[in-house]
Amino acid sequence: MTTGDEQQLYALYAQINEWAKLNRERLIELVSTLVEHDTVNQIVTGQEEQCQHVLSGILTEMGLSTELYNPEEVTGFHEHPAYYPGKDYSNRPNVVAVWKGTGGGKSLLFSSHIDTAVIAPGWEHDPFTPRLEDNRLYGLGSFDMKSGLSASVMAVRCLMELGIKLKGDITIESVVDEEFGGANGTVAGRAKGTAADVAIIPEPTNLAIYPASRGGALWRITFRGTTGLSFSGESIENPANAAAKFIVFLERFEQSRAGIPGPAPWYKDQQDPLPVIVTRLEAGDMQAALCDVGPVECHVDIWVECYPGVTEEDLKSQLLQGYEDFCGKTFADGLSRPEFQRMVRFLPGSAVAEDLPLIPLLASRIESVTGHAAEIMGAPFACDSFVFNQYSSTPAVILGPSGGNAHAPDEFVDLDSLVELVCIYAGIIVRWCGVEDSHAGNCQL
């Protein structure tokens, strides 16, 4: 790029930044519109349809080539190696919209999920009524991830209204069923053939760049025993005791992984423990007025995270071996063996190549918009990026807004960061895809 091209590009960046500031209220209105729709993932079923129709209408009105489609209608969906059975996609369409370039540029895909986690106990206000307070927009899905989706839409709208003609194609994708280890909506997009040279997933990152994501497993661990009262010398084994010991082990297991660097380059400087969370305990007859004996089964539901490169069997083996070591006794010697039942799909960790050209471009744009050096690290969560990075030719990087309380009461997005995100997205579209517009000097990567 020549010096003249750079000057014209920075002038275009200034126009983008000014547009984003002037259109802040339109951005807030879009996020609010999406938050008002209940798109809670109901594990097997969902009700994303109405919100997806609204979004589709907005994208069509902008002039994008837009399609609503049901994952079940996609040829090869069930045969895709990442397909996970047992879900119902009745009235749960994906949305895909394309802004075609003039040709000769690189393509970029924004992939977001429209479903949300469940309504956690403790919300102070209606989670589907957006509330503005202290530069924050509160509402279920505001942070995870209807704001990131809205930022991608507004970035495209920005460039359209500025009269920019892109050389490469831009695709905006809104998928169903990502929460709770879903990812089949994302799988359907890949089976359909929706692709690009690179993808950005607008999950919440606090404006950091995540070129990698963790994996994780949600298991139900079952311990079995015997019950009754030993009036005649019966041998009673209470599975709750074994479960309690296992829970103590899980805490130690989590602590043992702290301070150990993850795989380079994206996790080598992270020393926080990988989460091991007991999500539910169940034992005894919960319908009985009281219980005077121990249960015959005790269930412990756990969420365990891992780094890229660790398989489900690897993670399970680590837990079993660690439990034997913790107890100083083997299963062969009579240690009560935990039974593992998969509750949702195993989410493998994934990563893009260290030299992916999009990463330094994003870092430069973030620094230009925020005035701070971009943070680049592995994501502290699992998500559907593995579908791109392990099952497609489109590498996916995660970048989204700042906020808080994801999957918790009073979820919110920081609105200043969201405006900055529009500037970042619009700028990276211009830089990555290239433009034909004269005031950008035909710039391209």
UniProtKB/TrEMBL annotation:
It comes from the Bacteria. GO terms for molecular function: acetylornithine deacetylase activity. Its EC number is 3.5.1.16. Pfam families: Peptidase_M20. Keywords: Hydrolase, Zinc. The keyword Zinc applies. InterPro entries: ArgE/DapE_CS, Peptidase_M20, Peptidase_M20A. This is Acetylornithine deacetylase. It comes from Paenibacillus eucommiae.
